[in-house]
TrEMBL record:
The keyword Transport applies. It comes from Streptomyces uncialis. Its main location: membrane. Residues 2-238 form the ABC transporter domain. This is Iron ABC transporter ATP-binding protein. GO terms for molecular function: ATP binding; ATP hydrolysis activity.
Length: 266
């Protein structure tokens, strides 16, 4: 579904990704983890066609993303950014319609009536009853559900999430992660998400890809990847790893930062 082949990307004087190769198969749920600045969000934007690699290729369903227009890419992959300011007075219904831009264009997106795709997106995340409420009147958790509905309204089979639990309390973090897992199963989505919480990654993803200094440091199922060595080498903390007694997923117990004078991120 998504292929990165020896992808490099950077800015003048700073290379962010250094030859990343990554294959995500249809229906997978993949979590990208790593320290700030390691290239996670950049990788996600490359997968959405918002950035172009300086070397290597990014393929979506076998097609080179650099040969697709932004609108054509948006018909095939939806990206939910970390956060976005609410437009004063915009209702939930109006925000969800923004997701129809790629398919319906700027005028079709503004039609008064909702199409079945918007209606299903709102129903799937449980916000139909809020359709006429202003988005800026919602709580952080409620607003994130609406933004997820907007991403679903693009009608794509690939969903990219950039830190979907940022600024949310624990209850709403679990609500959003559970919602993403349910939608992935019900809709047959391929999900790639940037997560800071390794516990959420271990519990809700099929596979964890850990980035360090712009390269892939580890890649595999959570039970194989989440180890004390990963905590130290990738996240810069000394800690222990156990197992959840019911679900069996790895549980991390970070103790203290690694005491090393050598910078972990260059």
């Amino acid at each position: 579904m998504i292929q990165l082949e020896e992808v490099r990307f950077g800015y003048p004087g700073h290379e962010v990704l250094r030859g990343v190769t990554l294959h995500v198969t249809e229906g997978e749920s993949v979590a990208l983890v790593g320290l700030n600045g390691c290239g996670k969000s950049t990788l996600l934007r490359l997968c959405a066609g918002l950035l172009r690699p300086s070397a290597g290729r990014v393929l979506l369903g076998g097609d080179d993303l650099t040969r697709l227009s932004r609108r054509a890419a948006a018909r095939r992959v939806a990206l939910l950014h970390q956060s976005a300011p609410a437009v004063p007075g915009m209702t939930v219904r109006q925000l969800v319609r923004q997701g129809r831009y790629a398919d319906r264009g700027p005028l079709g997106m503004l039609r008064d009536s909702d199409d079945p795709v918007c209606a299903r997106a709102m129903a799937d995340v449980g916000v139909t009853g809020w359709a006429d409420r202003p988005v800026d009147s919602l709580s952080g958790g409620e607003r994130q559900r609406v933004r997820l509905a907007m991403a679903l309204a693009q009608g794509t089979r690939v969903l990219l999430l950039d830190e979907p639990t940022t600024y949310l309390d624990l209850r709403h973090q679990l609500e959003v992660m559970g919602l993403v897992a349910r939608l992935r199963d019900e809709r047959g989505l391929t999900v790639v998400m940037v997560l800071h919480d390794l516990g959420h990654a271990a519990r809700f993803a099929d596979r964890i890809v850990a980035l360090r200094s712009g390269t892939v440091a580890a890649d595999g199922p959570p039970r194989e990847v989440v180890t004390p060595a990963l905590l130290a080498d990738v996240l810069g903390v000394v800690g222990r790893v156990g197992r959840d007694p019911e679900g069996g997923w790895p549980v991390c117990y970070p103790d203290h930062p690694v005491k090393d004078e050598t910078p972990l991120v260059k």
